[in-house]
C-alpha cells in the first residue's frame, strides 16, 4: 500500500513541477503551495517540505520539483541561516568574508562582485526591513533587489 501511495505522489508531482517556487526547495510542500504568492505560502511550503522530509527521494529520482542544481539553493539558505549576523554586518558595510562567500554560493562572477557588494549595501534597509525577518525573507528581499539591477538580475 505504501508503494502505491509513493507512486501516486511521484506521478502527481510531475504535473506541478513547472509551477514550483525555487526559493523554498523541492518537495511535497513546494507542490502543494505551488503558484501561491507571498511570504506565508513560502513559509508553509518550506515547513511542509521539512515535515515530510521527502527531499532525498525527490533529489534522487528528480521528482517533486527537485533537480540537480537544487543543492546550491539549499547551500545559500543554510549559509545565510548559519551566518545571519555576520552577513547582515557585511551587507551593511558592503564588504566582508560572509558577503563574499554568499556571492560565491550564488555563482556571482568575479567581475560582478563589487556591484553585488555595493547594491547590497545601498539596499540594506530594504533587504533587512525588520529585525525579526527569517532567512527566507532576507533572501527573498535580496533577490528582489538584485532583480531590479541590470547586471545582477542575471543571477536571480
Largest sheet: none
Output the number of helix runs: 10
User: How many angstroms does the end-to-end distance come to?
Assistant: 41 Å
**Arithmetic mean pLDDT:** 79
SSE order in H/E notation?
A: HHHHHHHHHH
Outline: globular
Provide the β-strand percentage band. under 5%
Helix content: 55-70%
- β-strand number: 0
How does this structure look, described?
This protein is mostly helical and 156 residues long. The chain folds into two domains: 2-61, no CATH class; 70-155, no CATH class. 66% of the residues lie in helices and 0% in strands. The chain is built from ten helices and no strands. The longest helix is centred in the N-terminal third of the chain and has 15 residues, at 2-16. Residues 6-21 have low confidence and may be disordered.
Chart the SSEs and their pairings.
Elements: H1 2-16, H2 28-32, H3 39-52, H4 55-61, H5 70-82, H6 84-93, H7 97-105, H8 110-122, H9 124-127, H10 135-147
Offer a concise description of the structure.
The chain has helices at 2-16, 28-32, 39-52, 55-61, 70-82, 84-93, 97-105, 110-122, 124-127, 135-147.
